[in-house]
Amino acid sequence: MTGRALAAVVLLATSGCRRGDAASYLEAARAALYAQKPEVALSQYKLALDALERNTGPEAPLYRARALRGAADVYAFQLHDPRRAVEVYRELIATCPEAPETMEGRLHLANLLRHEFRDIRAAIAELTAALARNPPQSAELAYTVATLYFELRDYQQVTIEADVVARRYEASAWVDDALYLKGQAFSMMEGRSAEAQRAYLELVSRFPDSPLKSHALVELGRLKADQGESERAIEFWVEALKTHPDPKVVQTAIARVRTHLRATTPDKVGDPMKAFDWGIAGAAVGEGGRPLVLPKTSAEAVGASKEEAAREERQGEGRVAPPKDGDAARGEGSL
After folding, report:
1. Over the stretch 207-265, which tens digit does the pLDDT of each residue have?
2. Closest Cα partner for 104 from 116, 118, 92?
3. For the structural domain made of 1-135, what CATH number should be given?
4. With the CA atoms of 105, 106, 107 and 113 taken in that order, what torsion angle do they form, in degrees rounded to the nearest 10?
5. What does pTM read for this prediction?
6. 135-143 CB contacts, 8 Å cutoff, 24+ apart
7. Burial category of 273 from C-beta neighbours within 10 Å (exposed 0-12, middle 13-18, buried 19 and up)
C-alpha cells in the first residue's frame, strides 16, 4: 500500500468518515491544518492515499505527491517527528520523482538529515540531486553544498564547490559568500595562504559594497600578520574599520600588532645623531629610575681618572677646582 510510513497512524477521528475520492480527502486535510488539527490532517492524507490505490486516472500522480508531501510536512513541522518525516519524504521522492512537490520535499529532507541526524553526506546527496533538475534557487543550493563540505572539513572540495557558485552563477547574490568561504577553506589548508589572499582580494575588488568586504579585510590582515608583514596587516585592518560591524575586534588586533612592533623594532638603528647621545632620557637608567648621565670628556676618553675627568669638565664650565695632593706631580710627570 502506498504510504506505508503512515500505516501506524490510525485515529478514531477518522473511523466514521465516508469513503470518498482523493481530492475530497486532500481538501479535508487542508481544512484540518487551518484549524490547527495536525493529527486529523494526517489521517485525511492517509485516506487520500488509500483512495488512490483504486484510482488510475491521470490526476492520480499529482494527488499522490500532494498527499505524501502534506503528510511528511505534518510530521516534520507540526508533530516534530523527524524520523517519520524522513521516511515519507523518501517515499515521495521514490514514487513521484517528477512532481513539483518533490523538489521542496527533497530540500526539507536535506535539512532534516543535516540538522536532526547530522548525516551531512546524505544531505549533500539530496541537494546535489535537486541541483540536477536546475531549480530556480540553484545558486543558493550550490553554496549550501559548499558549506556542508566545510562542516565535513573537506576544504579542498569546498574550494571546488565555491568556484562553481562564483563561475556558474556569477550574476547571483551568493558569489561574495562563495569567495569568502573559499578564502576560509584555503586558510585552513597548509601552505595555501596565497590562494586564500587571492580569494579575499577578489571579493574586496568585485564587491566593494558587500557586507563581507570588511570581514575579508580582517582576514587579509591576519594572513599578513602571520607572514610577519605587520605594517601591511594594519593597513588592511584600518580599511576594515570603516564598515566592520564590530570595530572593537579590529581595534584590538591593531593595538596588539602595534605593541609588538614597538617591542621588537630597534629605535633609530644606525642613526649617527644618537650614536653617543648618552644623556637622553631612556638611554641609561640609574638609581631610582632616573636617567644616568655619563661623562663624555676627552680626559676620560684617553684613560684619565674620574677625578681628572671631573676637573676638566669644571674647567670647561669656568669652575676650576684646586688639584688634590699629588695631582700636579702626576700632571707634570705626564708631560
Report:
1. 999 999 999 999 999 999 999 999 999 999 999 999 999 999 999 999 999 998 888 87
2. 92
3. 1.25.40.10
4. 110
5. 0.72
6. 135/103, 138/169, 139/165, 139/169, 139/172, 139/173, 139/174, 140/172, 140/174, 141/107, 142/168, 142/169, 142/174, 143/174, 143/177, 143/178, 143/181
7. exposed
